[in-house]
Amino acid sequence: MTHPSTLAVTGMIAAIVIAATAGDVLTASAMRQIGDLDEIRAKRGLSGAIATVVSNARFLGGVLCMAISFFSLLFALSNADLSLIAPASASLTFVSNAFAAKFFLKENVDRRRWTAAVFVCIGVALLTH
After folding, report:
1. What span, in angstroms and rounded, lies between the C-alpha atoms of 10 and 81?
2. How far is CA 80 from CA 10, 55, 103, 109, 129, in A?
């Protein structure tokens, strides 16, 4: 197997991270928009709760982005080393989710989470050199 260039590996990891983060943000936003599923289920039954979720455009967009992320991961694993792709994509998704939660979902991301994100970045930097 020939090893892909550093730029190609970076692009593969970026595709995984961007799609996964978009999927997480869209899904979280959809579930906040939908509200308490227990209340919906109590009023409309399980089928009503399922219909409410699967008819939400944000939820469907989130699922699509998660599927793109998954297939990007499969492509990356077929072309690059697992020992780089898996930890880098997982850890960078953690970092990008913290930024997305803060700026898109307006969540309060405390100092402890930012510190953890910095350590994750340091770990990824050590992994890639």
Report:
1. 12
2. 10, 37, 32, 33, 15
Q: Whats the size of the chain, residue-wise?
A: 129
From the list 105, 118, 124, 15, the residue with the least C-alpha distance to 65 is 15
pLDDT tens digits, residue range 87-101? 889 889 999 999 999
Structure tokens at 83: 């020992």
Question: Model confidence over 2-49: pLDDT tens digits?
Answer: 778 889 999 999 999 999 999 999 999 999 999 999 999 999 999 999
Per-residue pLDDT tens digits for 68-120: 999 999 999 999 998 889 888 988 999 999 999 999 999 999 999 999 988 98
Q: What is the 3-state secondary structure (H, E, C) of 66-82?
A: HHHHHHHHHHHHHHCCH
Q: Give CA–CA dist 4/80, Å, rounded.
A: 7
pTM of the model: 0.88
Contact call for residues 66 and 23 (beta carbons, < 8 A): yes
The pair phi, psi for residue 88, each rounded to 5°, is -65, -45
